[in-house]
Amino acid sequence: MLKYITLFIFLILSSFTLCQKVRYDDYSLFKILPKNPSDFKVLEELQQNDLRYDFWTSPRAAVDFVSVMAGPKEKDELKNFLSSHGINYEIPVSNIQEAIDKESVKNYTGRSSSTMSWNSYYGLTDIYVWIDDLASLYPNIVSVIIGGETYEGRDIKGLRISHGSGRKGIFIESGIHAREWITVATTCYIINQLLTSNDTEIQQIARDYDWYIFPVTNPDGYLHTFTRDRMWRKNRRPINANAYGVDLNRNWNNNWLMHGASLNPSTQTYAGPGPFSEVESRTLSTYIEELGNRIELYLSFHSFSQLLLIPFGNTTEPLANYNDAVNIGRRAMGALSARYGTMYTTGNIAEAIYLATGGSVDWVKEVIKVPLVYCYEFRDKGQYGFNLPADQILPNSEETMDSIVELIFQARRFGYLV
Ligand SMILES: *[C@@H]1O[C@H](CO)[C@@H](O)[C@H](O)[C@H]1NC(C)=O
Ligand SMILES: *[C@@H]1O[C@H](CO)[C@@H](O)[C@H](O)[C@H]1NC(C)=O
Ligand SMILES: *[C@@H]1O[C@H](CO)[C@@H](O)[C@H](O)[C@H]1NC(C)=O
Ligand SMILES: [Zn+2]
What we know:
Elements: H1 2-19, E1 28-33, H2 37-49, E2 54-55, E3 66-70, H3 75-84, E4 88-93, H4 96-102, E5 105-106, E6 121-122, H5 124-137, E7 142-149, E8 155-161, E9 169-174, H6 181-196, H7 200-208, E10 210-214, H8 219-227, E11 238-240, E12 243-244, H9 279-291, E13 295-303, E14 307-310, H10 322-340, E15 345-348, H11 349-352, H12 360-368, E16 372-378, H13 393-413
Parallel strand pairs: 5-6, 9-10, 9-13, 13-16, 14-15
Antiparallel strand pairs: 1-3, 1-4, 2-3, 7-8, 8-10, 11-12, 14-16
């Protein structure tokens, strides 16, 4: 009897703790400023050997900072470690929980009373209802598309904007890393612009192409960042007693596990037990495969660091049409900087980030042979990181839209998308 009572109490307690949100009281965001290759090496080793730190960005040659979140118990240790190696750092956010509490989250109340606004973040259900509303509001142009499914049984829902058949396709994949909220918000803004903008250039690109847009390609993870853990990155498949989730952007079947990924389920970059082991990446890749050569431009949205990345992640060699892609990309980033002065660096994944493989863009480039493939890393440069304040949603979205207009214009000059 006592055994059962104990069990009962245990169940109550554990369900109580399970329902709690993960809190980040006194967790700090470090912006570490390595100066030379040996500093980078020290940080790389720290990332590999000490899983207590959450590296929000990885040590990478082309970027002059590394963002790391450290808990209250580890903060002083990290400070001492950096000082002992003579590595400079700043602490732009001293209490992550405060940044989370300040985040503006709104509920979409439906098209009858209000539309989506661009000064707040929205949860998964809101975005899915909004997509359905758009399909009924623009029945001749918008259709709901299902790009795949998730471990917890949800659809990967997106929409297609098409003003007629036979157009070349542009694909936008966003929110594959759950905590990168700005990618989801910006994608919704782009959808809205393509449907409602009065700008003739935007109206033209909306009309001239078939747009396949998925604001949230990791729905279980994204939902989890609202309900339980704001800092969740991976999908939500249980792996073992202590670990959940696979990094969906290390799980694609191109040079899987070769670089920048891990076989340890407790890491943020766990690549899964094998390529396409995860239902999300597997079903989405099947969907992309079915579209095949109808896709001429593929955009993948991530945050943060202000980078425009070009395949491949396994080598700094200029493969395929790398030179065209860089030329087009640099001009697009020029347009991106015009409005607010936001500066992006353009380069291939390996040179701009670090060797990292198993991501969607390499697979799309290698297997589907999509002519132009880019990965954006949006704002900022380590000031807020994933907790980008909601008042930056609009500027980030506007400058991204500017860059896409220019990217398409330049691509056409180079003979693509025509
Ligand atoms: C949004 O809706 C959820 C339930 O769906 C509710 O818990 C939450 O309080 C609402 N938030 C706002 C800002 O109205
Ligand atoms: C486009 O113009 C119409 C009419 O002038 C206006 O109501 C609407 O808000 C404008 N749309 C955008 C996205 O600015
Ligand atoms: C990098 O990956 C691409 C695409 O899979 C492949 O064609 C190329 O040979 C690889 N290069 C190296 C150095 O591994
Ligand atoms: Zn990401």
